[in-house]
Each structure stands twice: as structure tokens, then as C-alpha cells.
Amino acid sequence: MKKHLSFWLTMFLAVSLALPLYSMAQTPPKLTLESYTTGDRITGAPIKSFSMGTDGSLVVYLDGPFTFTLLVPDISVDGTSGTYSGCTVSPPTSVTVTPGANLSFKLVSKTPNTIFSPIVVDPDPGFTSFTPSTGVFTWNTGTNHSGSYLAVFDAQSGTYKSQIVVTIKISQQYELIMAAGANGSVSPPAGDHYYDPGTQVQISATPNQGYYFSGWTGSYTGTQNPYTITMDSDKTMTASFTATPPAQYTVSLSASPTAGGTVSQSGSGFYNSGDSVTVTATPNSGYTFTNWTEGAGVTPVSSSNPYQFNITGTRNLVANFSGGPPPPAGEALVWNQRYQFMLNAGTQRVFIATVGANVAGFKVNILGTCNETDATFTWTFPDGRVFPDPTKPWTGEPHIYGTAGAGNMSLTGTAGGWVANIADQYIPQGQHVLTIKATSTSSMVMTAD
Questions:
Q1: pTM of the full predicted structure?
Q2: Contacts of 129 (CB under 8 A, 6+ apart)
């Protein structure tokens, strides 16, 4: 099949259908008639006038004789593999191209010595080339992403002439623009990429060492990596990267024994890797700092106080103290003895009750003849706990009971007074302090056994 072009005949027919009679006032066009089956062409003189006959026929009046021209037969685009690139040829005159392709194709004729010459590419992209000696047409389609173009060429072999119109169709594709911020890369690589509609493209971001991927911006906003996008329109994707913060570690401090002293550190307890940390142990009265150990371990990690180090991991430091508090001031409580005494308002009496390892149990009873709200009664254990609340008065006959083995310790009083129980704990060994303080003059009797 041949495809030939006759511009003036097309114009002529269009105008003739609109006007029944037309007289050429300006430079008239020429009339060209071409046979669809044989390809022969008749070129007429300039059109003088034309009209529509009463029988429906078209009458064209020329200002001169006809000229008969034989056409070059069988001209086409060569569809043989190796004669074109960057496109798909559908003989005789159709070419399909992907956006951005650098295409080339060759015109061929079965008539020897046919010479082709370009007439026009419409719409004109402005950067095509044609080599008449080889019949090769080239075009770097560049940013012309889609659409149809007509490339028109003259063909001549001696007195034979013709034209060939090649349809160049750039298929529909969408553009994906990939970009990477500093300190990372993306896949597909940064730049322009083209995909058929509906194509699913997986994109990913890779940070440089010391950085992490912090998110996508553009057609998609988020942190999913990799991420799959569907090419249903032009897309722009930019990956951002952020410097990785240094690792953070904690420092936990404790004292052994807890009554031995206090511990402190130079910061909040949270540190970046490599930070300098200083920990300090302050012994309580009667105690001396010994060393620092790690966690449940017994091997000293330092005997320095303060102890300074650069942190490279989580630390759980224990400050160890030796010694003990000074003995409490007061009179020794003699077991199996009865005490009777008077306390003036504002005075107190302190007894030191020593509980040894072999004590199976004890009981202390206090009976008062004073107003029941005129005295307070406290029992202080070796570990510093005080029972009951020293601000509360005692009522009736307070009792202190301790039972070894069962591990029960109780301080009890009658209704309106106080009750304190230490369940499931053995009687603490050591020096217990009993303090009786009068808020008004009081007479008391106490037995301890």
C-alpha cells in the first residue's frame, strides 16, 4: 500500500463544499489529482474558478493545460531488522517510539536511483536530521514525551516523483524524577525516568555511613523504604537523610548498705556515647567509702571517689561503704526488769534494747497513769525505720512484740491509739531505740521480758 499526500486537493474539496461558486481574487492554488490505485498524478494549471453542477458534479476551471506526472511506486519505511533503532516500524509508513528515544529509520523504494528529500515534520520539533544519500532520518525525541508527528518526504527518480508521509507516534509514558538529598543515594538513580501507564516502580533510599533515611517528599510523603509507586501521572520523589545521633547510655547508682551513704552523678543519668561522667559517693556518719562495683559483681571497678570515666555502655554502679553509725545515745534496756519513773512535760527517756541472734522473742509493756494523750512512744529499728508515727500519742497500754522464726514484729495499742505490724520479717538484730517523750507530767511503769 502507498500513502501519498495531496494538500491542495484537500483544500480544494473543503472549500468547494462550502461555496457553490468561487472566483480566485488572489494568486490561485494549483490543482493536483492523484490516483489512489496506480499512484499516477495529474498536475493542473492554477485554478481559475470552480462550481457545483446541477447534477451534483464538481466543475473546476483551470487557467492552463494539465501536466501528467508518473509517480515513484512502492516507497516505504524499511522494516528490516537492523535498518532502524530506538523505534518500532510497522510497514509501510508507521513508526512507534518511546519518549526520550534516539530514533532512526530508513526510507526505501523499489524504483532504482530514488532520491528522498525532507519537506516537513509537523509539529516541527526543531532538531531532526535527514541524509538524502542514505535515506536515513534521525531524531532524538528528548522532552517530546507523547503525541503523533507527520514526517513528509519528496521522492524522485528521474521524471518520476512522489511523496511519502511517515506517521511517528511517541507512546504515552509518565516521567519519574528521582532526587537524593545530601549524604545518600536513591534507586532508580537520581534523574529522569519514563514508564508506561500503570507500571509499578519500587523506589528505595540508601543513606551514607553516619546518616539515616528520614523520609520522602514530593508525590509521596512518608518514611516507607522501599516504597512502590504506581505511574498514573508524572511523579517527583526526593529522599532526605539526617545525621545519626550518637548512641545513648544510662548510669544507675546505688549504695551498699543503703544506710552507708548517698550517691550522685554529674548528669541526668542519660549520656551520649563517649561523654565524660563523674560519680560521687558521700558516706553517712560512722561509714567510710570502700570502692565501686558493677551490678551484682564483687570485683571492684574503681576505688576512686569521685570516679570519672568516659561512657561506652550502660553502667550500674554500686558504692560500697564500711563501718556503721555511732551507737545511739540512751540507757541500756535490761531485760526482765521493771521500770517505774516520772517524766516532766517536754522531757523524754531513751532506752537502748539490744537484740541478739539468740533472742527468741521479747515483749515490752508500758503502763501510764498520766493522761493517755500526754506522751508519745516510738520504737526505732537498727535500719532506721520508726514505729509508730512519732507524732501520734499512745493510748492505754502499748505493747511491743517480737517473735523470732515466725518473723513477726508488732507494735500495738488500744482503740484510738496506733497499730504497726512488720509481717514476714525476722526480728532485726542490733540496737533498737525506745523513746518515751512526755508532753505533760506523766507517771509510767514499764516491763521488758
A1: 0.39
A2: 137, 138, 139
